[in-house]
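Show me any protein, keeping tokens residue-aligned.
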Amino acid sequence: MLKNFKILALVFASFSCSRWDYQDESILVSSEYPETYISIFSSDTIFTSTDSIGNITYSVNDTLNPNTVWDTLPNAFTTITTSKQNIHWWGEDSDGNIVGYFYKWSSDSVWSYTNLESGVFYVPIRSDLDVFSFEVKAVDNDSLIDQTPSKITLPIKNSAPEISFRYLSNPLLADLPGDTSYTFPTKTFVWDLYDQDGNETITDIFYAIDDTCSSCWTSLAGDLTSLTLTGLSSGEHTFYIKCKDIAGAISPVIHFPDSSRPAEAQNWVVKPVLGDVLIIDDYPLDNANNALNWYTGMMDTLLGEQSYSFWEIGDELPYSSTDLSANLNYFKHIIWFTAYNNTASASDTYNSAEANIINFIMNGGNLFINPIDFEDTTFTWFPLDSIVTLNPNGRLFPGRILESEVDSSLNLSVSHLIAVKVKGFWPTISSFDTNMELYHMADPTSSDTWIGNPTVCSIGQYEVSPTELSGKVVMMTIPLHDGYRPKLQGNGSAIKLFDYIFENQF
């Protein structure tokens, strides 16, 4: 009986240990530290060798050199990368969650915190080839930090910066009357910068004019993307520019003009500023320059040779508004003639220059402009109350008289058929402080369609301040020249109009 009791007690004890023996929850279980991992992609094999005093040197893809060996630095990548690094990391925690990370580059003095698991970094490389390490350690929800941060060592090779002229900032050959870009002594150059290591690593820009000798370069700040040159000497020039990064790498030199870029102007010539009158040729289809020659011949008579300047704009205004304003402001008086056609928006440029024209006038400059085709919104700065088409059929016949409000001896007459639609207008007098009609159309004949005597030439000024007036604006809407012959010579030369304007108005 006693024997059976011992057996039963033994069986019960066995069941008690394996089935009903629970863990004592009063004893705390220690939390596990998180673990951290890094993922990165690189390319280009790096080799290392040791010099006579034990310093490690690096080379790229140097498989032909028998003295080089694979990089054996702990946790080092055997590939060269740029200073722009896109690094991914993650953490794992066996008994909780990862809430963030601390990371640090070898160039940093303190750890940084983030809850992200990737980042783009620009390593501050200051030599052609250097080695950096990156460490990251995870933080879990128990505020425990990985005791052994994950670390990689990266050989970083500096990438040379690049510089290029901004698209369309240099004139295209197709927009010029020839192969040469003519400017006055102000010229702006605009460029774009790029460095694979980050544009912030570009520290210097250097430019030179005409010569690239070692002492010919002028230094600029590395964050500039344009330069306006002033006071340029007359004659042919070449502009050179390059940039340098913080590690000393220098971009290839680019220049304007550049014969390897056949779509752009092949020459750059600076014209001198002659006199205080500028003739602007805004008629690119006048290939033989007949209209320009007529205007310059007129100025030769009125002012004398070499007493004025002229500028052939071509199909496009200068890329920089600074250059356009400078070209106008070199002069006191502007004569701006436009294309003889009814597609002004496709060839003339004066409408795009509206802001520069207004500034020129408000600063005291005088403007004579001869637009042929425009709408109510073209000259928002000129007081046009209403506009009428004088010849809806596109034909204004010889003999039509433009009557002068000043003196009948100044009357003009159409000398050759004008085969484009032209405008008459009625100015809004209140818009100008002073406003005067210079010419209106004579009474219509039976074959004419206009009613009354619409204005075709008017002069006025703006009130800049209570004590100051702007320069004067003269607008004439009948073409003076069609690119083949003058149009208003039927009652003596139209030169008398300009003689009156320069003697009595400008």
